[in-house]
Design goal:
heterodimer, A: mainly alpha, Hydantoin permease, 20 helices, B: mainly alpha, two-stranded antiparallel ribbon, 66% helix
Chain lengths: 495, 137
């Protein structure tokens, strides 16, 4: 039955995507759906795109394993949108850029900064795609017993077909649909689980768990306070640097709509993230054997409800999990492919197609080779890289006139480089012990301040390399669109 | 040929015609204060005055953003410290739910939405003020 659910989700995604074909005629349509997407559609699409396997499966798994400290993960993933809203959303939309490298070029008037940003976008995208493919393999193995690579390959293929056939417009429809599917797939089974829990006499966690697992900063985890703060920093500041999230802001009609969209996104995510904690909490009582895996959401319905109803509910959460893989992977693929097509290839529709294949193939290979870590941990590392590179670039670029080209470049290289090195050490080697292990597993707390410091101090040392058009760019970024002002003639290269 | 009295000017009243009064509809003070250029042109030509307008907009919006971020940082960074400093809080209950769970897995989300809503309202208000300022006829 769960296999049927997977097939239904995959077919539905392809069919809905096919409706987008007739809309995508020009390159501009292809990249950002001609900016004709309304705020609610847009917000649902952002939610659908953002809630990955890490949110759907990973958070509950980590809460089950590590307890209250992990509650910060969804809090940070939601709160990141508040930071994004106040610091970035409207100016970024007003910049008129399609992608993060576009923004870097528009603001700093430098192709070197643009290329550096492109490389980082591709790195972050691949780092985020890899665990999606890995978990797809694990889920399909749990459901059907198929080898691990089948699930990853299936998701990769569907995403490639979808992106190739419809571009962004189709993805917007698919994504909006996926948010509501994911919410339903997690909420409906939870109702039945809570009923089963009540019927069971509403037990609570064991006395030992109530004393440690349920209590924050008591799990005996080494450097717990450092890890908590580093996690908070990475998630709150990393959200604004995620390429697949930012590409959505360009589909708003203007800066004001971008803000309102972000507000709706916050409500949608807040509603969703109420659920995984309950799964983790129920899981601690009913499936304590699943500590250290991502399988709690998939297993609970069968263990607690059982019978045909249990099968049905398992099918529903499996469908939700596949929706999560498909939507996040599609969004990431669109943005990574867009960047590869524009900056490494010629920028035509044909090169977008070649880029799509590259965007999917590399993380698929990585997923089959790399050490399997909890999905939410790897995604957390992608956040750390984004927070250490794009967060300073965006915040300083939007609010500080004296940011120089050299400063931005140095900050991107040092911040992004240090965070990537830590990520590489964690994924390929590790787990490492002691303080070094904590610093490498949660690098944001030291890489983000270093990135900001480098960007600011190098900018102070190179005042002659502040872009000439900064005043005009500031007008463009900050003034409402209905004012008749000269905003410069910069246009993204893909239009 | 006697000139028609202009409505903007005060009309000297004859003694025998006290009932006839003319409303002063347009005192010339506004016309006298009108700048040579509209403010949008000052901004386009990047004059000092234009820069002042832009800086005022940036400063207002940045202060607002910084205020929201500071409140957020105090809440978010204060909570772990609070739990660390006052162990009783960690084990306290709110309607049968452990307090840290009630806050981190529930109450904090609506708080985010309310904060975001207040921010959007104020940011749009700031932009309207700026638009009024530079588009003032």
């Amino acid at each position: 039955m769960s296999l049927t659910a997977v097939v239904v989700v995959v077919v539905a995604a392809v069919l809905i995507g096919a409706f987008g074909i007739r809309f995508s005629r020009t390159t501009s349509d292809f990249y950002v759906a001609s900016r004709s997407v309304s705020p609610l559609w847009n917000a649902s699409a952002i939610g659908g795109e953002y809630l990955s396997a890490a949110s759907f499966l990973g958070v509950a798994g980590l809460i089950l394993s590590f307890g209250a400290d992990m509650l910060w993960l969804p809090v940070g993933w939601t709160g990141g949108y508040l930071v994004l809203l106040v610091l970035v959303s409207a100016p970024l939309r007003r910049s008129g850029a399609y992608t993060l490298p576009d923004f870097a070029e528009a603001r700093l008037e430098s192709m070197t900064v643009r290329r550096t940003a492109s490389v980082l976008v591709v790195l972050i995208g691949w780092l985020y795609l890899m665990p999606q493919f890995q978990s797809a393999g694990l889920v399909l193995r749990t459901v059907t017993g198929a080898p691990v690579w089948v699930g990853g390959l299936l998701v990769a293929a569907v995403v490639a077909v979808n992106v190739l056939s419809g571009g962004m417009r189709s993805i917007t429809f698919v994504q909006a649909f996926q948010y509501w599917l994911k919410l339903t797939a997690l909420a409906v089974p939870l109702v039945f689980l809570l009923m089963a829990w009540r019927a069971d006499g509403a037990p609570t966690v064991s006395a030992a768990d109530a004393a440690t697992w349920q209590v924050p900063l008591a799990g005996g985890k080494e450097y717990g306070l450092y890890s908590t703060y580093s996690l908070i920093l990475a998630t709150f500041l990393g959200t604004m640097g995620l390429p697949h999230v930012l590409v959505r802001f360009y589909t708003n009609p203007d800066g004001r709509a971008a803000r309102r969209t972000t507000l709706v996104v916050l409500s949608l995510l807040g509603a969703f993230y109420l659920l995984p904690a309950l799964y983790g909490w129920l899981g601690r009582m009913y499936v304590p054997d699943l500590v250290g895996t991502d399988a709690v959401v998939l297993t609970l319905p069968e263990r607690m409800v059982g019978g045909t109803l249990g099968d049905l509910l398992t099918a529903l959460v499996t469908a939700g999990a596949f929706a999560a893989f498909l939507s996040t992977s599609s969004g990431l693929t669109v943005s990574v492919a867009g960047v590869i097509a524009q900056d490494l290839l010629k920028g035509s529709v044909r090169s977008f197609r070649a880029a799509t294949l590259m965007a999917v193939a590399v993380p698929l290979v990585l997923a089959l080779w790399a050490r399997a870590l909890p999905v939410a941990d790897v995604v957390g590392l992608a956040f750390a890289v984004a927070a250490s590179s794009f967060c300073p670039l965006l915040v300083l670029g939007i609010w500080w006139r004296r940011l120089s080209t050299a400063g931005a470049l140095a900050g991107l290289l040092v911040g992004g480089g240090l965070a990537s090195a830590a990520v590489l050490a964690t994924i390929t080697g590790g787990p490492w012990d002691g303080l070094a292990g904590a610093l490498l597993a949660q690098p944001a707390a030291w890489t983000v301040p270093i990135a900001f410091a480098v960007m600011v101090s190098v900018s102070f040392l190179t005042p002659h390399r502040v872009p000439a058009g900064v005043a005009r760019t500031m007008v463009r970024l900050h003034t409402p669109e209905d004012l008749d002002l000269d905003r410069g003639d910069w246009r993204p290269r893909s239009s | 040929m006697s000139p028609e009295p202009r409505p903007a000017r005060r009309v000297p009243l004859a003694r025998h015609d006290t009932a006839r009064r003319v409303t002063v509809t347009s005192p010339r003070t506004a016309a006298a204060r009108r700048p040579r250029y509209p403010a949008t042109r000052e901004i386009d030509e990047q004059t000092h005055l234009g820069e002042v307008y832009m800086r005022s907009l940036l400063r207002t919006q940045f202060r607002l953003a910084l205020f929201v971020c500071t409140v957020l940082a105090c809440v978010v960074c204060g909570l772990p410290l609070l739990f660390l400093a006052i162990p009783e809080l960690r084990e306290a209950d709110l309607l049968g739910i452990p307090l840290p769970w009630a806050v981190l897995a529930g109450l904090i989300y609506p708080a985010f939405v309310v904060g975001a809503w207040l921010y959007v309202r104020q940011a749009e208000r700031n932009e309207r003020h700026f638009a009024d300022l530079v588009e003032r006829p």
